[in-house]
Amino acid sequence: MTKKSNAKTVVPTGVPDAFKPAQIAFVPVPLSLSRWLHSIWFSDNPHCLPSQDRCYPDGGVSLTFTLSDHSLNASVLFSTRTAPFVTLPGDALISIRFLPGAFTECFGIPAESLPRDAISSFASLHPNVSLPVNEVCAAPDCERVRILLQWLTQRLHQNSAVSEDRERLISNLATPLQHNTDIARQLGVSSRTLQRTCKRVLGLSPKELVQFSRIYTARQQLIYSSGSLADVALTSGYFDQAHFTNHFHQFVGETPAAYRQRKVSRFSNIKK
Description:
Elements: E1 3-4, E2 24-27, E3 37-43, E4 51-55, E5 61-68, E6 71-78, E7 83-87, E8 92-98, H1 102-107, E9 118-121, H2 122-125, H3 133-138, H4 141-159, H5 164-173, H6 180-187, H7 191-202, H8 206-224, H9 229-235, H10 241-252, H11 256-271
Antiparallel strand pairs: 1-2, 2-3, 3-8, 4-7, 5-6, 5-8, 6-9
GO molecular function, one term: DNA-binding transcription factor activity
Organism: Alteromonas confluentis
Domain HTH araC/xylS-type: 163-262
């Protein structure tokens, strides 16, 4: 079963920013995979022209499968910055978004070794893992996601036990109003131990994860609230509007006001 994105849905991190809701269909994450996966989507209306979009990071990893001319390729998106995402004409996309630390846990890759060059080939990261190329290419569209999830489930059974450290870190760090010293105190560890554990388990620093949460909260507020930029700044964990504006512009590539105007205008056009 799939569901279409709509104007009230915040398109999750890892979905190209310029995709319109009509071009994205979401698949509910199976309960058996919910401790590893954030979301699953596919493009059911491929672009007719080449496009370069933007994806905003949240600490997770996207494993995106591109189907074209009876071939299946997989790329890995992991970055601490807004990353470009190029779509070619006729490509069909299926993307599985992993929670922070879950991708490396699933495939037995040390989290600290995951490259941060935005997009890299899955084969170069894990040359010993075979993709289900023949099965996916031969299957009808409605079966492809199921085949990939079955393949992923097999990988999990082979390689992974749920990391309690990972889940505990995510639950404490995925809030924009927390600070590293407060989080370390809640977990009963020193700030240095928290830093080392995050790097080992998630491949990121505590500061980076808190920043991702702040930017995501700000993006939600800018689209769906009518609050002032000062209100958005405070809600998102920033001390003042100036600090918020500078960090948002550096991270997203445009000012909060420009982002709000572009997004609200886009959703208004969709509703018409």
